[in-house]
């Protein structure tokens, strides 16, 4: 029988020795880590480093919620998955990786969408909730469920070269997500990794910092970012921390007289679903649209004029040989003479000008703008853009 005043085994002491000797951790802190339970919502770019460091640090029980499967375009940033797991559920993939790091960790996976129907059944079983999601509807859902179950929420996000982190509902004056964002943004103004990209180390930095704050909450009961927002610009190599306004007394979920006492329909509230999948616009009449197969037939019999509305860097990745790159930011300036010069025609041109983009959304906006601007020219959108072209016409054409 051990004469020590703690319950750590010889193997525990050896495995966690480098953190046991740290100020603020010690044997008591390690026991708290071992006895804690953390729920991670999202098994992607942020969820991977969070899970990796929590498992390695000895967190006793980890819950992971995600409905998606591993895809090739995940691997540059989602470092707990690999090529052999493409097509596997991300929850299953993370469980396998956790078991390789620390087989003593109990891993509970939920391979479905978090929703208002199941959140309040899952959240009470954990001490801390971690938001590693990728869409606004899920962020509101996680926030409200965390408040209703009285759990601190460690929230991170990353897009492009930038990332941010904060901790909600942690202390008497600490705000929640609704305190800061009482009204959701319009769906058309919400960006995502699929459309705007993200660099792997950015999610690594944010996810690692989330894991750090989780461990501090477990051991110390406090966080350095409760009521503060940490901002990271990886391109400029700059960070800054700003103070958030304190908890709002009139907040509908965490205020003095809350009106939200049950979870609501968050897709309806936000005007968008609980995923980061891009919206498919349908704003043009059928006569202003043409399928990729029809366009393929047209180009086999003639040399049509094709405007490619993507940014220059995306145009460089791949494009049809006849495509003329005029990005949306140029079209929006409505410099008609410049546009005529770029495509080499004038108002007397009596054939259709075609417009293409990545997925068929920007091209519709462009056709709408161009047909309003040029009264004697006709512009048509190619439905589904290059993604449909790759799917239905030329499978060798790369998609990204």
UniProtKB/TrEMBL annotation:
Q: Which organism is it from?
A: Acrobeloides nanus
> What GO terms fall under cellular component here?
cytosol
Protein's name in the database: Adenylyltransferase and sulfurtransferase MOCS3 homolog
Any single biological process term in GO: protein urmylation
Pathway as given in its UniProt record: tRNA modification; 5-methoxycarbonylmethyl-2-thiouridine-tRNA biosynthesis
The record's keywords, sorted A to Z, are: ATP-binding, Cytoplasm, Metal-binding, Molybdenum cofactor biosynthesis, Multifunctional enzyme, Nucleotide-binding, Transferase, tRNA processing, Zinc
Q: Name one GO molecular function term.
A: thiosulfate-cyanide sulfurtransferase activity
Query: What CDD domains has UniProt attached to this entry?
Result: ThiF_MoeB_HesA_family
